[in-house]
Amino acid sequence: MYIIGIDIGTSATKTAVYDLDGALVAESTHEYPLSQPHNGWAEQNPIDWWEAVCATLRDVTAKINPALVVGVGFSGQMHGLVMLDENNKVVRPAIIWCDSRTGEECVEINQIVGLDTLMKITASPALTGFTASKIRWVQKHEPENYARCRHILLPKDYIRFMLSGEYHTDASDASGMQLLDIRTRSWSPLICEKLGVDMGLLAEVRESPEAVSRVSAKAAALTGLREGTILAAGAGDNAAAAVGTGVVAEGKAFTTIGTSGVVFAHVKAPAVDPMGRIHTFCAAVPGEYHTMGVTQAAGLSLQWFRNSIAPNTAYADLDKMAESLPIGAERLIYLPYLMGERTPHLNPDCRGVFFGLSAMHTTAHMYRAVLEGVAYSLNDAYELVSKTGTPITDMSICGGGAKSPLWRQMISDVYGISLTDMSKGGGASLGAAILGGVAGGAYPDVPSACARVIKGGSVTTPDKDRHEAYAKFFSLYRDLYASLADDYKKLSVL
Fold this sequence. Notes:
By secondary structure, the protein is of the alpha+beta class. It contains 17 helices and 24 strands. Strands 18-19-17-16-22-23-24 form a 7-stranded mixed β-sheet.
C-alpha cells in the first residue's frame, strides 16, 4: 500500500510516493516560473502548478500500482489568491505569499476591522503576505476581475479542485487568509462583512486529515491516479512540514529553510504575540495550533546571490569557500529583506543590505554573510516563538537549505541549541502523504502516523564559543534595522 504527498511550492511542485512505514518509493519534481511585474510584486499562473502536478503524478504513478494508493494529501505555499470565474477558469494570475504590494490595503483593513478585533479573531494584524489584503487590492484596483470571481481558493486547494471538481480548504491554510476565526476554525462573518467578501466565494473549511473528495475520471486520465482515490484536505506548507518532521506535540519545533525561512512550534491552545510579530494558526492536528515566525527571503537570498553574483558556482563549492572564513565574514553583515519582512518587523518596505562591504571582500565573504544574515533572521523568529506558548525542548531542521552542513552548524551555533537534521526526510511532502494516509484509513490519527513513520537524522550541537561570537554580530544586525527603518520608508516612495 502507498501514500502520496503533493507539495505545491513556490519554485516547483514535488510529488512523492511512500510506503506505510514512510520509506520513499518514487518522487518527481517539476519547476515553474515566478513573475515580478513590479518591484515587490510576485505572481504565478495556477495552470503552471496544475501542469506540474499532472507531470509529476504521471512520473510516480508509472512506477507503482495506482490501485494500491490509499490516499493523497496536499501541502502548499500559503496565502496565495486564486480566483475562478463561473466556468472555473482562472481570472488573473495568482498573487502569492511573498507579494508585498498591499501595504496600503493593510492599513485600511486594520482601520476598517479594528486592530484589536483582528488580533482577537485571527491572531494577527493585517499583513501584506495574507490573502485578505490581496482580495482588497483586487477589489480596488481590478474591480472587473473581482466582479468575475465566483470562487476564491488557496494554491493547494486549486490543485485538489482540479483533481476532484470540489471546493474545500483546511483550517491550517485558511488561517493564513485572515478571514478565519482561528478559535472556531470557521470563516468570520464579521470580518467578511466588513471587507465586503461574500462568504459564498470561500471554500468549505475542513480538518487537514479529513477525506474531502475523490479523484475524478478526467483527472485520473491526466495523472495516472485511479479514479475514486481519496483526497485529504491537506495543510499549508509549514503545517504539513510539521507533520513530516513529527512536530505534532507541545515542546516540539522545527526550523525550515525553503524559499522563506520559518521557525514553527506546536501548541495545544492559541498562544498569541500581542504585537503580531509571529503567527498563530490552526495546526494540521485537528483542534490544535501552532506558532511560527517567518523570514521572507531565506533560501531565496541564496538563490538570488548564486544566480546574480556567482552563476556558475555550485552551492557546495560556495560552502567550501565560506567555511574557511571567520565568523562575521570579516565585518560584513547581510540583511535578508529582499521581499520585505514579516518576523519581527512586519515591514513590506524594507529591502536587502550588505553592511560593511570593503574592497577586501570576495564572493566567498558575501556568500558567508548571506548565510549568517539568514541565520540571524531565523534567530529573531526563534527567540520570539520560544517565548510564546510552551517552551521548546526539541528542535528539528528541514528544507533544502538544511542540507548544508555548514548552514546547519551555523544556525545551531547562533541559536545555542541542538538541531535534529530532518532534511533527508520528506518534510512537507511526507507530511502531506501522512495526511492522505490518515484520510484513507491507513493510520488512526496524525500523532499515531508520525510515531510509525518519522525517523530522525543526525544531531548538530552548538559550540559555546561560536555562540558567543555570533551573539556580538547578531546584536549589531538588530541595530542596523532600527537605524534604517525610516530610510526604508523614504526609499519606497522615491
